[in-house]
């Protein structure tokens, strides 16, 4: 096959590839800067690479949701950390967003911030759910800016001590 035809075919395949919205997750355990997780989309969750933990919105009442990390390897998924335990968001238009300035923020339907990591970064950042259930905000130098494990008032560790 002529090399030019091969590259034209390859280019046409890339042009037909699906595009992702700003709330899309490039990897199921990473949220990229400028992206968000929506309370309205059940599939907007982060999953640890080993599948033991997930992070997303959990129902805590009638039209009331909290952003939580869940331990999935039990008969009933168990919440091990919660960002907004005392201030649930409603089921429409609420989201967790990783802003371009490096702040992780939870907004309710009225766009009122209910929780924040209170972080900023002059360089790119990403949010990662690790195999041990720790939700970590990193910069591209792999430096930790915020971790759910350090938010101890809302954390319960449920993992093998060798992997924590």
TrEMBL record:
Pfam families: B_lectin (PF01453). PROSITE patterns: BULB_LECTIN. The keyword Transferase applies. Residues 1-19 form the signal peptide. InterPro entries: Bulb-type_lectin_dom (IPR001480), Bulb-type_lectin_dom_sf (IPR036426). Keywords: Disulfide bond, Glycoprotein, Kinase, Membrane, Receptor, Signal, Transferase, Transmembrane, Transmembrane helix. GO terms for molecular function: kinase activity. The keyword Signal applies. Residues 31-150 form the Bulb-type lectin domain. It is a single-pass membrane protein. It comes from the Eukaryota. It is found in: Membrane. Its main location: membrane. This is Receptor protein kinase ZmPK1. The gene is LOC125420849.
């Amino acid at each position: 096959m002529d090399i030019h035809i091969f590259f034209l075919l390859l280019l046409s395949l890339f042009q037909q590839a699906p595009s992702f919205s700003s709330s899309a997750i490039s990897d199921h355990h990473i949220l990229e800067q400028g992206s968000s997780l929506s309370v309205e989309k059940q599939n907007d969750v982060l999953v640890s690479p080993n599948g033991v933990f997930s992070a997303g919105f959990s129902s805590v009442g009638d039209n009331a949701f909290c952003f939580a990390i869940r331990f999935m390897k039990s008969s009933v998924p168990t919440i091990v950390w919660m960002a907004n335990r005392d201030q649930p968001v409603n089921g429409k238009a609420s989201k967790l967003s990783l802003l371009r300035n490096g702040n992780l923020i939870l907004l309710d339907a009225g766009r009122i911030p209910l929780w924040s990591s209170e972080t900023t970064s002059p360089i790119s950042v990403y949010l990662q759910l690790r195999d041990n259930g720790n939700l970590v905000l990193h910069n591209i130098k792999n430096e930790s800016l915020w971790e759910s494990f350090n938010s101890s008032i809302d954390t319960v560790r449920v993992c093998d001590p060798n992997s924590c």
